[in-house]
Each structure stands twice: as C-alpha cells, then as structure tokens.
TrEMBL record:
Coiled coil: none annotated. It comes from Herminiimonas glaciei. It comes from the Bacteria. This is GGDEF domain-containing protein. Residues 56-306 form the EAL domain. Residues 488-639 form the GGDEF domain.
C-alpha cells in the first residue's frame, strides 16, 4: 500500500528543446518591452531552468547512491484475525533515507520511473524486506508489495524472488505477493500467466486497495486471488456512512462465495474496528491495530484484545428514507399518442369514441407540448346542439386546455406532489405532461402519483422515520436480531409520550411534530452512538437498545431533559395551570396535564429471548406498566425473558417501579 512501483516510462526529455520553446515563448511579446527587460526575463527563465536541471540531477545521483548502498528501511505493519486478535502476518513497507526527498515511497518510485530504474528499485525493496523479515523472526505471513507492471516485465527473471527467499530461509508459502496498482493493467493474459507461475512456486496472491485502483475488480475476476484488501477509503468512517457499509458488505459476500479472504485496511477507530469485525471480515490492519514499525510487536495490546473480545455489536449507520429521493416523474410515464394542432375536432372525437379508456389527448407542436384535450370537455361540448356541426372541422386547439401541467422527467415525486397540490383542482383529474428537456415524452396521472407516494412513505417508515430521521421498524428488528445472535447482554427501552394525542388535537400537528423531533434529539443526545441504538417505531413511540452499562443514568437524564424542555411547547396560561382542558370523544371536558414521558425497560440476558418479536412483546408490556405511574416514569422489568418467566413464582419481585 505504501510502496507502489510504477511502470518505467518510455517518454524521454529533451532539455535543450524545452529551453528553446521557453525562449521562443518569451520572445513573442518582445515589441512591447525594452531590450533590457527582455534580456532580464530571458536570464531569469534560463536560471530557473538551470536550477530545475540541477535539482533533478541531484535526485538522480541520490537515487543511485540509495541503490548502491542499499539505503532503504523496511517497516512492518501487523495484520490480525478480527475475531481473535491473533497476528497472522505483516505487510512489508519501505522508506528511503530519512534526511532525503526520497524518504517517501511515492517520491522514491517517481524518481526511479523517470530514470527507468523502477525494476531495480522494486527488486531491491523486495530483497531488503525479505531479509529483515527473516532477521526479526516475525511470525506468520509476509505481504510483499509487487506492481503488476514489474511482474510482467519480459526481462524479469521469475526465479529471482524465489532465490531471495531460499537465501534468507523463508518458505514460499509464507509469502503473499500483494499486487499494488499504480497504472492501468491491460495485458491480463500475460499477468495471469505470471501469477500462475508464481503460484506454482508456492506463493499466494493478494490484490491491494480494492475499489481504489484502475481495474481492481477486473483483476479480482481474472486472477482469483487468495486475498483482497479493501481500500481504506471504504473502511474509514464506515460506522457513519451507509454506502461504505454496503460496499464492504457486498465485497464480503462476493469473497465468501469465491473463497477469497478479505482484509480491511486503514482501521483507525474503535467503531471502525467493531464494525469490520461484525461484518465478518476475516483480517484487518490499520493504525488502530498498530502503526508500521521497523521492529513490530508480535502480540496485540491487552486493551485491543479486550475490545475485540467484547461481545457487543456495532451500530450500523442507516439510510434516511431509503431510496425515496431517487424516484422521479419518469416512474409515472405512460405512453399516450399526441396530436398536432392542425388535427380537427371530429378526429379527436373519433379517437375518444374508439378507445373508451382514453381520457386525455396531448396536443404537441414540433415536439413541444401546447395543450391537453380531455374526454369530458370535448364530449360535453359536442353534446350541445349544433356545436359539432359548427366546430367539428376546426382545429382541436379550440377546446384544449392551453395551460396544462407540464413537468420534466427528472422532477422528484415529492416535488411533483407539491406542484399538483398548489395547482388548480382540474389538474388533479387531467393529469400532467412529462417532458425531456422540453420535448414531449408521455403522460402521468394523479392516481399513479398517489400510489407511488404512498408506497414511498410506507418504505420510508419501515427503514427510517421521515419526521425524526431515526431508524424505523426494519432496522430496529435487524439490530435486535444481531444482538440476540451475538449473545449480547443489552437493555431494551420502550419510550412513549403521555397525553400526546390531546396535545396534538389542541395545539395542532405541527407543534406535535416539533415535540416528536425534540424527543428524538433528546434520546439520541443521551445515548452513545457507538453502542446504543435509537429507533422511532412510529407516532410518539420510540425504542432504545442500550449496550452502555450506565443505561439507568442515561434513562434518568432523558427524563430530566424532557421535563426541562416540554413547558416551552405550551402557552404561558397553560404552563401556569400545569395543563389545559379539551373535549374527549364523548364531548366531555377533560383536564390534561403537560406531556410526560414514560420509559419501560427490559434487561435482556443471553439466551433468555429468541427473537425480536419476544423483545417487542416484553417492552410493550413494560411500557404499559410505566404509563400506570403518574407523571414522568421509568419502569424496569428485571425478569429474565419468557423462558425464565415460566419458573418465576413472584413476578412482582422481579419488577421495579421508579417514579
């Protein structure tokens, strides 16, 4: 990953020609400058060229010294088994002299390429890395960086690397050739032949930076490597990005089916480490595990081993309203034959008469829609005495709606819905014209739009509540099942607002929505995003799945925060009275106190519940008990699940009411 050799360039530089071109460019505006100014400019550019050439010559000379005196330092970064923390091997990295511009492998190979010395430098890196790996007696495998370009060089002796290994006493089956792309690979046949040759000698193959290179997926398909390394871009921040999560998930699924082992690079935080582990990725490396070092450790720290052994599960990031933003008017497109403005009304009447399902006919001139003719309007007109005789042979534009609703195919459905709501009522029945850059494509109707909007809302509510943007029912159930399958000890807390419906009726749904949003923020703000899952079941019902050990303190903090915030949702008079009066369903005047919050919590021990259905039933019961307590309340059910409840003689002894 850190040393990426590049194919030698065939491009030659011609310093004298470049200088001549520069001088000619300088000479162009000569007539606008004095002779002295011109000569000064020429001298300045000549001096700059000389400095550049001198610096380049110095780097070339420095590179030759590095090669001659083997002034390269190998570093090793551990690669671990994610489930156990065992170090299974090391990636060999290289650094140039610390006091030189060639210290960085990027600069080192850039200069080597300009001098056509890439192959020599890469072989030297390989040899030095192998020698140091053997000298340090490091356990496990060595991942050795090799460029595909170097691997298929016609003048490269394929047995040279094997010779290094025999010299230092390493078995070939401990060496993984890690293909590191820096330029596109086109000759897959030649590369496949080279890989087959190396495999025959006992080496195994890995592809580096999957997802980042020019053709890494194609390489995977062509070479069928034993290992693939996911590029760090998709690993870093995976706990916050559902797209990165899905990418790694997909790669892991492909790898499992193809018999390939996945290695996640660039792990830098606890959350990333646990997320990668939970996804089933076998191996990992990164600064969180260990930095590259000249003399690396052979075991992990106690803290890191304990973190990996923690039986909690990572909280997956979720998509807010999965996919609803991608649906556009194109989804509603129906093919409806248009007519030109010159068509007579009699012809339009025949078209409606011949097709009873036809409700509207668009009028289009040179591809541009100019109006709509509706069945109801034309038939109604022609039903009147003498109107057909008078207007039957006239242009159909006479009875068309000259201001139809027109929308582009890329208009989002939720935006289109608002346009129709704001428009005149007749557009709801007439439908709308769909265009592509102003050109007629077809028609859409309100019935199809309502069906799609409804389905979008159902899907959005299942995956993410559109009001609070918290995960909905599907992610909630999935997270509970992951906790149960992993044998994790956790607490499931059902959260419900008291007196919310009458508040919604009296103060209006907008104020009610504001209270629900605030509740979602309070719950999220008092939970650990890396351990605790907050979901919105619907309405004023929420759920928290605590893995934090201080869950009780967090519950009390939630209640305190809600108590402090809720008075702001009421008028001054109702605040003073501590409530308000409204009518119930029977028309009776009822006094309602300010909204309160009830938390019903169930402690879940490993093996005591079998599914998210049982958790849902238990938390719903705990919520009912909490709501029986006047005011803000926390109810803790300490019973050990449905199986243990059968043996529980005294249920009350296992419950705790906290006002």
């Amino acid at each position: 990953m850190f040393f990426s050799p590049v194919q030698p360039s065939n491009t030659r530089r011609y310093p004298l020609a470049e200088k001549a071109w520069a001088l000619s460019a300088i000479a162009q505006p000569l007539r606008f400058r004095t002779k002295e100014a011109h000569l000064s400019s020429v001298a300045k550019h000549t001096a700059q060229d000389e400095d550049t050439d001198h610096a380049a010559d110095h780097l070339v000379q420095r590179l030759k010294e590095v090669i001659e005196h083997r002034q390269l330092t190998p570093l090793f970064q551990p690669i671990i088994r994610m489930q156990s923390g065992e170090i299974i091997g090391y990636e060999g990295l290289i650094r140039g002299p610390s006091d030189s511009p060639l210290h960085s492998p990027l600069n080192l190979f850039k200069v080597a390429r300009s001098c056509n010395l890439s192959v020599e430098v890469e072989h030297l890196c390989r040899r030095i890395t192998l020698e140091k790996f053997a000298e340090l007696r490091l356990p496990g495998k060595l991942f050795l960086n090799v460029s595909p370009e170097c691997l298929i060089q016609p003048d490269v002796r394929h047995g040279e690397t094997l010779g290094y290994i025999h010299e230092v006493g390493i078995n070939p089956d401990r060496v993984i050739i890690e293909l590191t792309e820096s330029q596109p690979t086109y000759d897959y046949d030649l590369l496949r032949e080279a890989v087959t040759h190396y495999r025959a000698m006992g080496f195994r193959i890995a592809i580096d930076d999957l997802g980042e290179g020019f053709s890494s997926l194609r390489l995977w398909s062509e070479l069928r490597p034993e290992y693939v390394k996911i590029d760090m871009h998709f690993v870093q921040g995976i706990n916050l990005d559902p797209i990165k999560l899905q990418f790694v998930r997909s790669i892991q699924e492909i790898a499992e089916k193809s018999g390939t082992i996945v290695i996640a690079e660039g792990i830098e935080t606890d959350a990333e480490l646990l997320m990668i582990r939970d996804l089933g990725v076998v191996y990992g490396q990164g600064y969180k595990i260990a930095r590259p070092h000249a003399n690396p450790a052979t075991t992990l720290s106690t803290d890191l081993r304990n973190l990996l052994r923690h039986n909690g599960v990572a909280v997956y990031p979720h998509e807010n309203g999965r996919g609803h933003k991608m649906l556009t008017a194109m989804k509603l497109l129906r093919s409806v034959k248009a007519v030109a403005p010159e068509v007579h009304n009699n012809r339009i009447y025949e078209m409606f008469n011949n097709d009873p399902t036809l409700e509207v006919i668009p009028v289009v001139s040179n591809g541009i829609p100019v109006g709509l003719i509706t069945r109801a309007n034309l038939i109604d007109r022609f039903a009147r005495p003498y109107l057909r005789e008078l207007h039957g042979k006239k242009s159909c534009t006479l009875f068309m709606d000259a201001n139809p609703l027109i929308t582009d195919k890329n208009t989002a459905l939720h935006a289109l819905s608002q346009i129709i709501v704001d428009a005149d009522r007749h557009h709801l029945f007439n439908g709308f014209i769909i265009t592509d850059n102003g050109q007629y494509m077809g028609m859409g109707n309100a019935h199809d739009l309502m069906r799609e909007i409804t389905q979008m809302q159902i899907n959005a509510a299942r995956y993410a509540n559109p009001l609070t943007l918290l995960p909905g029912n599907v992610p909630i159930d999935e997270h509970i099942d992951r906790l149960l399958e992993n044998g994790t000890r956790f607490c499931a807390c059902y959260v419900d607002l008291d007196h919310f419906k009458p508040y919604n009726d009296v103060y209006g749904y907008r104020k009610g929505d504001d209270m629900l949003r605030l509740t979602g923020k309070i719950l999220s703000g008092h939970c650990d995003p890396q351990k605790d899952f907050v979901g919105h079941i619907g309405g004023d019902d929420f759920i928290i799945l605590f893995q934090s050990e201080d869950w009780e303190q967090r519950c009390r903090a939630i209640i305190d925060a809600f108590v402090a915030a809720v008075p702001d949702f009421y008028c001054v008079e109702d605040r003073k009275k501590g409530g308000y009066i409204s009518e119930d369903r029977r028309g009776k005047q009822v006094f309602h106190t300010l909204a309160t919050i009830s938390l019903g919590l169930v402690k879940v021990e490993p093996g005591h519940y079998g599914s998210h259905h049982q958790i849902a039933a238990a938390t719903a019961d705990a919520k009912k008990q909490a709501k029986k307590i006047p005011g803000n309340s926390l109810f803790i059910d300490r019973r050990q699940g449905p199986y243990a409840m059968e043996k529980q003689n005294d249920d009350d002894a296992a419950q705790e009411l906290v006002a």
